[in-house]
């Protein structure tokens, strides 16, 4: 993470104003009155957006698996039907023989707890819990029907992880400690995922800042 992105992440976490009250978003051109802390920047789907942050975390998770000696691949087509357009939905990460010999589809999803809808009835961890429930309802039975396990991996822009994601990382950590080459890296698995989330958030904010800011 470069220095500017790092400063942006610190400002975002500490609630330091980053944007003008009336400046439109450079990606979607919408104006959010009073959105000075970057909350729209980390939930906007334009240009360097939520997809970029998602991919940064996904790639980090795959690398963690690789370094721990766990067979995994990203963007694997398992024949799962997608949305209304009928396109197939690839697995963000596929863990081979992970659950009693069954391959497991891991679906990553990033959310912000500080959006207008997220602040309604706000509670710590609620945004990732709700995301996990939605993903299980949408994909779990469909994955099971074609012979795959399913595991949601929800995370928030503030670094929160759902219990399913925590359980997965703890299992990877435990597996890593049994491997001579992975013992040293095991202690840093949660740190790496947290840093990947922060790096994605930093890229989102920097892409929308005035060029001479920070």
Features:
214 residues; alpha+beta; Trna Endonuclease, Chain: A, domain 1; 4-stranded mixed sheet; 7 helices; 43% helix
Overall description:
The protein has 214 residues and is an alpha+beta fold. It has a domain at 49-197: Trna Endonuclease, Chain: A, domain 1 (3-Layer(aba) Sandwich). It contains 7 helices and 4 strands, in the order ααβββααβααα. It has a 4-stranded mixed beta sheet with strand order 1-2-3-4. α1 (3-14) crosses α7 (189-206) and α2 runs antiparallel to α7. It is globular and about 55 Å long.
Which secondary structure elements does this structure contain, and how are they paired or packed?
Elements: H1 3-14, H2 50-67, E1 72-76, E2 91-99, E3 102-111, H3 116-119, H4 126-145, E4 149-156, H5 163-177, H6 183-186, H7 189-206
Parallel strand pairs: 3-4
Antiparallel strand pairs: 1-2, 2-3
